[in-house]
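anyone seen this seq b4? input:
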Amino acid sequence: MSIINTKQIAEMPVNDSDLEKKILKTILLNKNNIDYLAILNESDFYNDANKKVYQGFMELDGNLDIDLIPDVLKKSKEFMNVMLIDPLFNYELPVYIERLQKITQQRKIQRLALEATIKVKEDKSASEITNWLAEEFSKFTVKVQEDIEKQNMRINTELLEELQKDEYFGLTTGYPTLDYRIRGFANGTLTILGGTPSVGKTTWLLNIINHLCKKGKRVLHVNLEMSNLMLQMKMLSIVTGLSTSLLMMTKKNFTDENWKEITDALNLMSDYKWFRIGEKEITTATIDNTIKEQGGFDIIVVDYLQLISPIVHKKSRYEDVSNISRELKKLSTKHNIPVVVVASINRDYAMREDKMPVMSDLRDSGNIEYDADLILFITRRSLFEEHDEVKHGMDKFEFEHHAELLIAKNRWGFANKKICFYFDGEKSLFREVESDN
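predicted toks r here
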């Protein structure tokens, strides 16, 4: 029979110092994570250096902000080691806190096993050791239940805050029927907007960006298809209602009224929190760094998916796009904001009688349809066929300006629904008309 080396057991408690650091850094990077500190306990941090950082956070009394951390802690080796480690994605935090607390529970069991072994060596009776273990395990069970209740209370508080909002869970689009169908662009979700070239995907999104900017929202626009000047020209057209062809003329072609409309619009746009990036090489890491450097955004718009560069090239384009799609989904959950991404689709759907795209039409689709919480398609039959009043049930003008938005996938509500729009490419206008029931 082997003899248990109690000294060896005492020197080998289960722990994960890197996980402790990752959790501390992730909590610090997002003010909304402050409540997680109350779920944790000093005993969850086996490493004394990490425990010191946790204690420093707790002393801030609910005002967790890197600028408020005392210099004595901020300049300490313990804090610097925490800041050097890569954080978790924000959506992973509850899972990894649960993992850390599982390690804490295992460590406590190790301690109890060691103490029970010592009692055996002290020749305590079996009934005495059993009663002691039962009492210790009952305390342990109560602590686990308290942790669960704290976590549930935090989740319930967040849910109650969402339910008390005046509008929808997500950011409104400015299109009432669409907002009713999708409940707005919700935090932590990935939306894909599909369509063929020239259908008006960029224009449709710019109308939504204009709506959000007027509400004071911070928008990160990753623009990879159009020059910044042309993008601003289209936005100016949306705000003024003037055609882009008129705006691209010189001042001598403007009436005094035109010029006033333009200058008023430019003054309004100067207050927009519309941040644009569009270098030749944009990866999801570029987007992530921009969010951190600029202090966060209310929404990210990417135009478009297939022009995002992979961080690491895979064997096929299919795999590249799949990875980019998954990384964009992770960005939405990490920063707890909606991400809306334009994606190209194959033209083959135009051969079908109804001229309506389906999810499998997404070009190089990979895992896009699985990663996305919401998939929308814009289509205009006038791009693919000649007007026929009998067939289309509308005159030529209506037909040429008719667009449809299909909600192809919606994890949170209505799907397989169409919403009709009036489209005016000259004025960069999409106006909601009606929808089916």
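Confidence is low (pLDDT under 50) at residues 6-10. The chain has two domains: 6-163, 176-435. kinda curious what u guys think
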